Protein backbone atom coordinates (compact mmCIF):
# COMPACT_ATOMS: atom_id res chain seq x y z
CA UNK A 1 0.00 0.00 0.00
CA UNK A 2 1.33 3.43 -0.91
CA UNK A 3 1.34 6.36 1.50
CA UNK A 4 -0.68 9.45 0.77
CA UNK A 5 1.31 12.27 -0.82
CA UNK A 6 2.43 15.29 1.15
CA UNK A 7 -0.12 18.04 0.84
CA UNK A 8 -0.68 21.58 2.09
CA UNK A 9 -4.26 22.83 2.02
CA UNK A 10 -5.67 26.28 2.84
CA UNK A 11 -8.34 26.55 5.53
CA UNK A 12 -10.57 29.58 5.68
CA UNK A 13 -14.06 30.87 5.24
CA UNK A 14 -16.54 28.58 3.53
CA UNK A 15 -19.51 30.12 1.76
CA UNK A 16 -20.94 26.65 1.28
CA UNK A 17 -21.02 26.11 5.06
CA UNK A 18 -22.62 29.53 5.53
CA UNK A 19 -25.33 28.55 3.05
CA UNK A 20 -25.86 25.19 4.74
CA UNK A 21 -26.32 26.81 8.16
CA UNK A 22 -28.69 29.42 6.74
CA UNK A 23 -30.72 26.76 4.93
CA UNK A 24 -31.03 24.63 8.05
CA UNK A 25 -32.13 27.60 10.13
CA UNK A 26 -34.67 28.73 7.52
CA UNK A 27 -36.10 25.19 7.39
CA UNK A 28 -36.55 25.18 11.16
CA UNK A 29 -38.11 28.64 11.11
CA UNK A 30 -40.53 27.60 8.35
CA UNK A 31 -41.51 24.45 10.28
CA UNK A 32 -42.27 26.43 13.44
CA UNK A 33 -44.20 29.06 11.44
CA UNK A 34 -46.27 26.31 9.78
CA UNK A 35 -46.89 24.76 13.19
CA UNK A 36 -48.14 28.09 14.56
CA UNK A 37 -50.46 28.53 11.56
CA UNK A 38 -51.76 24.98 11.83
CA UNK A 39 -52.41 25.38 15.56
CA UNK A 40 -54.41 28.54 14.92
CA UNK A 41 -52.28 30.65 17.22
CA UNK A 42 -49.27 30.69 19.48
CA UNK A 43 -49.65 28.66 22.66
CA UNK A 44 -46.89 27.91 25.12
CA UNK A 45 -45.60 25.01 23.01
CA UNK A 46 -45.37 27.14 19.88
CA UNK A 47 -43.76 29.94 21.89
CA UNK A 48 -41.15 27.45 23.10
CA UNK A 49 -40.54 26.40 19.48
CA UNK A 50 -40.12 30.05 18.45
CA UNK A 51 -37.64 30.64 21.28
CA UNK A 52 -35.69 27.52 20.20
CA UNK A 53 -35.56 28.70 16.57
CA UNK A 54 -34.46 32.19 17.59
CA UNK A 55 -31.81 30.68 19.90
CA UNK A 56 -30.54 28.47 17.08
CA UNK A 57 -30.33 31.54 14.82
CA UNK A 58 -28.32 33.46 17.41
CA UNK A 59 -26.01 30.47 17.91
CA UNK A 60 -25.50 30.10 14.14
CA UNK A 61 -24.71 33.81 13.76
CA UNK A 62 -22.26 33.65 16.66
CA UNK A 63 -20.55 30.57 15.17
CA UNK A 64 -20.35 32.28 11.78
CA UNK A 65 -18.88 35.44 13.32
CA UNK A 66 -16.28 33.42 15.25
CA UNK A 67 -15.33 31.44 12.15
CA UNK A 68 -14.87 34.65 10.14
CA UNK A 69 -12.94 36.31 12.96
CA UNK A 70 -10.34 33.56 12.80
CA UNK A 71 -7.95 34.21 9.96
CA UNK A 72 -7.67 30.57 8.95
CA UNK A 73 -4.44 28.89 8.14
CA UNK A 74 -2.86 25.96 6.43
CA UNK A 75 -3.19 22.29 7.18
CA UNK A 76 -0.21 20.20 6.09
CA UNK A 77 0.37 16.46 5.87
CA UNK A 78 4.06 15.59 5.55
CA UNK A 79 3.60 11.83 5.29
CA UNK A 80 4.22 11.33 9.01
CA UNK A 81 2.07 13.85 10.85
CA UNK A 82 -0.49 16.63 10.48
CA UNK A 83 0.72 20.20 11.06
CA UNK A 84 -1.38 23.33 11.52
CA UNK A 85 -0.09 26.84 10.84
CA UNK A 86 -2.36 29.75 11.72
CA UNK A 87 -2.21 32.67 9.32
CA UNK A 88 -2.98 35.23 12.01
CA UNK A 89 -0.10 34.33 14.29
CA UNK A 90 3.57 33.98 13.64
CA UNK A 91 3.60 30.64 15.45
CA UNK A 92 5.49 27.75 13.94
CA UNK A 93 3.56 24.81 12.59
CA UNK A 94 2.10 22.77 15.44
CA UNK A 95 1.73 18.98 15.15
CA UNK A 96 -1.54 17.40 16.14
CA UNK A 97 -4.22 14.90 15.27
CA UNK A 98 -7.06 15.20 12.82
CA UNK A 99 -10.46 13.49 13.04
CA UNK A 100 -13.08 13.44 10.28
CA UNK A 101 -16.57 14.22 11.59
CA UNK A 102 -18.44 14.88 8.36
CA UNK A 103 -17.51 14.04 4.79
CA UNK A 104 -19.72 15.47 2.04
CA UNK A 105 -17.28 14.69 -0.79
CA UNK A 106 -16.81 18.39 -1.63
CA UNK A 107 -16.50 19.49 1.99
CA UNK A 108 -14.94 18.04 5.14
CA UNK A 109 -15.66 18.93 8.74
CA UNK A 110 -12.55 18.07 10.75
CA UNK A 111 -11.53 18.37 14.38
CA UNK A 112 -7.95 19.45 14.99
CA UNK A 113 -6.42 18.57 18.35
CA UNK A 114 -2.92 19.67 19.28
CA UNK A 115 -1.28 18.28 22.45
CA UNK A 116 -1.90 20.60 25.37
CA UNK A 117 -4.28 22.83 23.40
CA UNK A 118 -7.99 23.05 22.85
CA UNK A 119 -9.68 21.51 19.88
CA UNK A 120 -10.47 23.47 16.78
CA UNK A 121 -13.11 22.74 14.16
CA UNK A 122 -12.06 23.14 10.54
CA UNK A 123 -14.31 23.21 7.48
CA UNK A 124 -12.36 22.40 4.34
CA UNK A 125 -13.93 23.03 0.98
CA UNK A 126 -12.95 21.66 -2.41
CA UNK A 127 -13.24 25.16 -3.89
CA UNK A 128 -10.30 26.38 -1.76
CA UNK A 129 -7.82 24.39 -3.89
CA UNK A 130 -9.49 21.99 -6.36
CA UNK A 131 -6.20 20.66 -7.77
CA UNK A 132 -5.08 19.40 -4.33
CA UNK A 133 -8.49 18.19 -3.05
CA UNK A 134 -7.99 14.52 -3.93
CA UNK A 135 -4.51 14.53 -2.36
CA UNK A 136 -5.97 16.03 0.80
CA UNK A 137 -8.72 13.40 0.98
CA UNK A 138 -6.18 10.60 0.52
CA UNK A 139 -4.06 12.06 3.31
CA UNK A 140 -7.03 12.52 5.66
CA UNK A 141 -7.95 8.87 5.34
CA UNK A 142 -4.41 7.45 5.34
CA UNK A 143 -2.43 6.30 8.31
CA UNK A 144 1.01 7.62 9.12
CA UNK A 145 3.74 5.48 7.63
CA UNK A 146 5.73 3.22 9.91
CA UNK A 147 9.22 1.81 9.66
CA UNK A 148 7.94 -1.78 10.00
CA UNK A 149 9.20 -4.28 7.43
CA UNK A 150 6.81 -5.35 4.66
CA UNK A 151 4.43 -8.25 5.39
CA UNK A 152 5.33 -10.07 2.18
CA UNK A 153 8.23 -12.43 2.96
CA UNK A 154 9.03 -12.86 -0.72
CA UNK A 155 9.86 -9.17 -0.96
CA UNK A 156 12.75 -9.57 1.48
CA UNK A 157 13.91 -13.06 0.50
CA UNK A 158 17.09 -13.41 -1.53
CA UNK A 159 17.39 -16.05 -4.30
Entry keywords:
alpha+beta, 159 residues, 4 helices, 2 domains, PH-domain like, disordered C terminus
Short description:
The protein is an alpha+beta fold and 159 residues long. It has 4 helices and 6 strands, in the order βααβββββαα.
Could you explain the architecture of this structure?
- The chain has helices at residues 15-39, 44-69, 133-141, 153-156, and strands at residues 7-11, 73-77, 82-86, 94-103, 107-113, 119-125.
- It has 159 residues and is an alpha+beta fold.
- The chain folds into 2 domains: 7-13 and 71-141, PH-domain like (Roll), CATH 2.30.29; 15-68.
- The chain has a 6-stranded antiparallel β-sheet, with helices on one face.
- Strand 3 and strand 4 (94-103) form a beta hairpin.
Topology-level CATH name of the largest domain? PH-domain like
| Distance separating the two termini | 24 Å
Output the helix-strand order. EHHEEEEEHH
Task: Bin the strand percentage.
Answer: 15-25%
Which CATH class of the largest domain? Mainly Beta
Q: Tell me how many strands there are.
A: 6
Morphology call? elongated
C-alpha-based Rg, rounded: 22 Å
Q: Helicity range of the residues?
A: 40-55%
> Strand count, sense and closure of the main sheet?
6 strands, antiparallel
How many domains? Answer: 2
Low-confidence stretches: 146-159
| CATH-scheme architecture of the largest domain | Roll
Number of helices: 4
Structural class: alpha+beta
In which order are the strands of the major sheet placed?
A: 1-2-3-4-5-6
- What does the average pLDDT come to? 81
